[in-house]
């Protein structure tokens, strides 16, 4: 089993739908992180393809100059999703209650998940769904930093280090047969450590774990 039952628990085990009931029109990571993510999307996503932005909000961080044939969104707050200009369509679903995605097999060229994977209590089921909806050769990009709603992150994430969280996301991909070996992109802040300790510069660390659906 990928995670033991206690590793899936959250400090706040009330329904996630209640936690996200009020819209948050904020960005959850800084500009440096978002620029790196948009550049990664620019490098890896192709025009005229079908994208699924899961656990999304009012922003998808997609490069504006690229035209996609369809961007499907998903999240827990309808008001946020309704305001996202990059989504062609969206649906609201609590993945910790129902991990089955209402999406067809092999229908997407890319699945994106930005700064949200830490909230999934059943990542084995979700990553298997990601594999199912991806076309062969399709790509999944899971990005994260070191920030989180602490009380809503699963124990396995909360108790880990930044390095162990990378390994955790890799293990999510590895738990599903038919994904390529995961690739890891890590970009720490370019500001020297001694300046960061003085509170100068710094910025949110950037991590992405990427895999392709084989065959
Ligand atoms: C920190 S926000 C990130 C939103 C967006 N990806 C971004 O980059 O701004 C976390 C998102 O995860 C989603 N989320 C959290 N728990 C969830 C759950 N149990 N089921 C489905 N979505 C969930 C919420 O919709 C929320 O918008």
Automatic annotation (TrEMBL):
Keyword RNA-binding: no
Domain Methyltransferase type: 83-142
Top-level lineage group: Bacteria
InterPro entries to which the protein is assigned, alphabetical: Methyltransf_11, SAM-dependent_MTases_sf
Keywords, ordered alphabetically: Methyltransferase, Transferase
GO molecular function: S-adenosylmethionine-dependent methyltransferase activity
Keyword Transferase: yes
Record-level GO BP terms: methylation
Protein name per UniProt: Class I SAM-dependent methyltransferase
Annotated source species: Symplocastrum torsivum CPER-KK1
């Amino acid at each position: 089993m990928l995670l033991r039952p206690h590793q899936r628990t959250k400090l706040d085990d009330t329904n996630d739908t209640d936690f996200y009931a009020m819209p948050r029109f904020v960005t959850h990571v800084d500009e440096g992180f978002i620029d790196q993510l948009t550049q990664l999307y620019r490098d890896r996503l192709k025009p005229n393809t079908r994208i699924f932005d899961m656990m999304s909000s009012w922003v998808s961080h997609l490069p504006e100059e690229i035209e996609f044939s369809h961007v499907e969104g998903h999240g827990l707050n309808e008001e946020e999703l309704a305001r996202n200009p990059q989504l062609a369509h969206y649906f609201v679903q609590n993945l910790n209650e129902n991990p089955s995605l209402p999406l067809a097999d092999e229908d997407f060229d890319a699945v994106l998940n930005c700064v949200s994977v830490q909230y999934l209590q059943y990542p084995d089921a979700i990553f298997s769904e990601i594999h199912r909806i991806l076309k062969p050769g399709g790509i999944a990009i899971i990005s994260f930093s070191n920030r989180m709603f602490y009380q809503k992150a699963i124990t396995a994430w909360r108790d880990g280090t930044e390095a162990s969280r990378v390994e955790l996301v890799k293990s999510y991909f590895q738990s599903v047969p038919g994904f390529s070996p995961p690739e890891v992109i890590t970009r720490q802040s370019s500001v020297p450590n001694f300046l960061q300790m003085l509170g100068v510069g710094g910025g949110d660390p950037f991590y992405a774990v990427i895999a392709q659906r084989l065959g």
